[in-house]
Amino acid sequence: MNPVNILLVDDQPAKLLSYEVILEELEENLIKAQSAREAFEHLLRTEIAVILVDVCMPEQDGFELVGMIRQHPRYQNTPIIFVSAVMLAEPDRLRGYAVGAVDYVSVPIVPEVLRAKVRVFADLYRKTRELERLNAELEARVRQRTAELEASAAQLRELNEELEHRIDQRTREREEALAQLFEAQKLDTIGHLTGGVAHDFNNLLMAVLGSLGLLKKRLPADERSERLLTNAIQAAERGTALTQRLLAFARRQELKPQAVDFLRLFENVEDLLAKAVGPRIEIHKRIPADLAPLLVDSNQLELALLNLFVNARDALENGGAVTVAAAAAEEARPAGLAGGNYIRISVSDDGEGMDEATVARAAEPFFTTKGVGKGTGLGLSMVHGLAAQSGGSIQISSARDKGTTVSLWLPVAEAFVKTQPAVEPPATEALNPVSRPLAILVVDDDALVRTGTVAMLEDLGHLPREASSASQALELLADGPDCDLVITDHAMPGMTGAELARHLRSAFPGLPIILASGYAEFSEDHGLGRMLRMTKPFTQEQLQAAMDKALSGKVAAA
């Protein structure tokens, strides 16, 4: 409970002291005045809740003082209590009420009575102020809601007026809707949806590429047919590259900090960033070639760049430029940043910018200034979390109509050692191709992929068998490993390919196994060691190379 101010007016110090002793139990702020002039000085400087005035005072009696107080607009309703040392006649009491007093206290003062009366008016003052505050808040909310409704109505009118134009711009709006959908599917949603869809799409591409490859080998020589087949194969391969890039951005894993060459990283994702912002936005980069390596999770840094570029795109509705710069951070560091060397990476746009209030909340989770369906408010929050978890920091500077700059402070990888190029094995270690027909078990729950893989193996002269699940494969091999090689998909319902591989390793230790998947990479927690792996879609040539490696005992990533 906040104390209020109580003004005590009496020309006798002893009486003021007695009032103070009686009222100190209320724990309010007691202000004393010995004259009307001194009382008015306090009234003009301070907000007073209750006033106690002595009736009999030299120069100016209490009636005159109260009359003057009531003339002030601020104190027309302030409770005033007269304190009288003499018995007042009824006309005098009526005169006091007429000038504005609300109560009387006679001397000798009964402390409990005085405290009770003052307490009542002090509480009334507090409740009145609280009611005024609540009314002001309510009025503010009403004004805000009214403004929102007016804005919504204005937007509705604009949409109705632009309906005919929007029909003509159907293609552009469809692309914007897809972009908004992409914005809404962030972080966890992107990881789940993109991973599953890309896996199924890789299976389709697997069937398409395998069939086209076999068809190309079997069709008679014809320039037109060969040109059409080559065009179809190239289109499918472009789809493969696109799917792998999407999967690379959809990885959901704990941060794995490593030394990262930022210039090379940015060049690898520059095309994807350009597609994210569209052709009307130019991308400029100022990244020195001799920049020290960063200590950061490269996948998450790529995702952070994508979030920042998408935010910049939304701020540049009429086109503009986005600039990426990187330099050793020598200027004043953000508060709370630990000692050490840092690289400052900044992404700037010349868009509409933000005001100070928006900048202060920009990194809060789920805070967004975009319209409904255009953002989840997690982009800058994710970037902020990456910087903090990486031992760095984030700074946001912006101004209305001047653009926005988001700066990431990331630590330098002090113990960085440049990776040496891999040493090629001597020519004497070349793999011996498989020359005899092999009994091969193909395990895949997708019939199209299974049929395509079997067709490629038959074309190579082998004797493949099919299994649509891991359990069916175990049944076929129950009487003994009547096969030379097992090629199994990883993502299957029931038992995964990794689990099947573990069963086969235990039951048939010498049986070669190739694990294939439509995902961009395999998780490292399957305990599969150095088992041979292939990424779908694969060609007949890649399949042949993987078989050569598996059967020659040289297990490496395909």
TrEMBL record:
GO molecular function: phosphorelay sensor kinase activity
Residues in the signal sequence: none
Coiled coil: 16-43, 121-180
Domain annotation Histidine kinase: ranges: 196-414
Keyword Phosphoprotein appears in the UniProt entry: yes
Keyword hit for Phosphoprotein: yes
PANTHER family associated with the record: SENSOR HISTIDINE KINASE, TWO-COMPONENT SENSOR PPRA
Protein name in UniProt: histidine kinase
